[in-house]
Amino acid sequence: MTTAPRRTALDALHRSLGATMTDFAGWDMPLRYGSERDEHTAVRTKAGLFDLSHMGEITVTGPQAADLLDHALVGNIGGVGVGRARYTMICREDGGILDDLIVYRLQEQEYMVVANASNAQVVLDALTERAAGFDAEVRDDRDAYALIAVQGPESPGILKSLTDADLDGLKYYAGLPGTVAGVPALIARTGYTGEDGFELFVEPQHAEKLWQALTEAGQGVGLIPCGLSCRDTLRLEAGMPLYGHELTTALTPFDAGLGRVVKFEKSGDFVGRAALQAAAERAETAPPRKLVGLVAEGRRVPRAGMPVVAAGEVIGEVTSGAPSPTLGKPIAMAYVDAAHAAPGTPGVGVDIRGTHEPYEVVALPFYKRQK
Amino acid sequence: MSNPEQLRYSKEHEWLSPAEDGVATVGITEHAANALGDVVYVQLPDVGTTVTAGETCGELESTKSVSDLYSPVSGEVVEANQEVVDDPSLVNTAPFEGGWLFKVRVAEEPADLLSAAEYTDYAG
């Protein structure tokens, strides 16, 4: 069964800009408007404008909203201050990762959980199921929001020209309600590019107006519209995982090198606690495969699923790969055996269509912005 | 997007120039280059090898994918464009000019190559 792709509130605008569209998790999304390399460079050096309306917003409210999320997710969500956000995960009882999430605490008894588009239904179902017995409501708000991101070093200046909100007081991973270009918005200082930037949650009816206002405000400083293709290379350079590539139900957060998101010290039981406790102990005694960076010495681009090899043996697997516009070389993230995971490990290669191409093992991320 | 009149086109989106002294130039169309996105790696057939019409003879790698390069014509490769190997972005910026891929001494040209007008209709 195939259903027609869902379209965001900005669909007509993307088409008028000549975007190349692509199906992403059932949504018709802009892949790129022109050159994906130019879009990538704009975000690194100036600013880029993204439509991220495919992301899945779920609102959790009620007297026990915090308790529910502490039970349903692996993080300490009750400890998040109002106006702050937290990167966290939702796991199965066996510790497998269902999704990675950003949770915003909008009010004492109101949270917004943002799930990946591909997992929005799964996360919604899991939260709804796990809400049983809690005095809290889980609401599907996927259609209530359009999401526009402005990312890059020029983004604070661009946004400042359109809002009276206190952006200087808005720290990384904080969010506050405000007005941008006359549009009511939740303004969050979050992103998936490795740059400073903002994500603006607005009603779909206001999306076009906001997009146009940001476009005009950014005209003089090099802001351009950016598609999902450069979003992928930006997050890869920044060493950020992508669900379905670095994160899957077959892995626990400890397998993904993200055990720090699991907060055993929080009070009360949470889904997956026992399995994750065991996974944490395993990670201590018998290190699992480790997520590392690979930098090409040649020009072939490693792709997800390709074997990582050393001395003719398969020692791991590529999870994401792309030509890096910033480094000017192909890069990849890969899970490799602990014995080959140290930066500089010699003799590591990737089997690219039968040829073993040499790669340098490096620590993640590939790119870190100068603060 | 306009496809030069003097070229002939394959359904795999390669173009072929009229032969001069038996040698024709091969490249990919602007339509194909746009579909690929930014090309980052080009593998061309070696000089001296024989290519066959409709068969793969190299590959083009872009940010998102790897695509096979098909030869639109049969013959012997007499030159490969080293400039495009060194700077694959030429495929995107000048697919019909500086982004040409290789030159071939034509042994046999398929009868079903398209005219510019036919290709424009075909590529949509």
TrEMBL record, chain A:
Residue intervals of the GCVT N-terminal domain: 12-266
Matching Pfam families, A to Z? GCV_T, GCV_T_C
Q: Which Gene3D superfamilies match?
A: Aminomethyltransferase beta-barrel domains, Aminomethyltransferase fragment, Probable tRNA modification gtpase trme, domain 1
Q: Which top-rank group of organisms is this from?
A: Bacteria
According to its UniProt record, this protein's enzyme class is: transferase
Domain Aminomethyltransferase C-terminal: where?
289-368
Cross-referenced InterPro entries, in alphabetical order? GcvT, GcvT/YgfZ/DmdA, GcvT/YgfZ_C, GcvT_bac, GcvT_C, GCVT_N, TrmE/GcvT-like
Its EC number is 2.1.2.10
Family stated for the protein in its record:
Belongs to the GcvT family.
User: What is the recorded name of this protein?
Assistant: Aminomethyltransferase
Q: Which gene encodes it?
A: gcvT
From TrEMBL, chain B:
Q: Which residues carry this modification: N6-lipoyllysine?
A: K64
The record's section on CDD domains has: GCS_H
Keywords of this protein's UniProt record, alphabetized? Lipoyl
User: Which family is it part of?
Assistant: Belongs to the GcvH family.
Q: How does it assemble?
A: The glycine cleavage system is composed of four proteins: P, T, L and H.
The prosthetic group or cofactor this protein requires is: (R)-lipoate
**Gene3D superfamilies, per database record:** 2.40.50.100
- Residue stretches making up the Lipoyl-binding domain: 23-105
Asked whether the keyword Coiled coil is assigned, the reply is: no
Q: Which PROSITE patterns match?
A: BIOTINYL_LIPOYL, LIPOYL
Q: Which organism is it from?
A: Streptomyces coeruleoprunus
How is the cofactor bound, as the UniProt entry phrases it? Binds 1 lipoyl cofactor covalently.
Q: Which function does this protein serve?
A: The glycine cleavage system catalyzes the degradation of glycine. The H protein shuttles the methylamine group of glycine from the P protein to the T protein.
**Which InterPro entries does the entry mention?**
2-oxoA_DH_lipoyl-BS (IPR003016), Biotin_lipoyl (IPR000089), GCV_H (IPR002930), GCV_H/Fam206 (IPR033753), GCV_H_sub (IPR017453), Single_hybrid_motif (IPR011053)
Q: By what name is this protein known?
A: Glycine cleavage system H protein
Q: Which gene encodes it?
A: gcvH
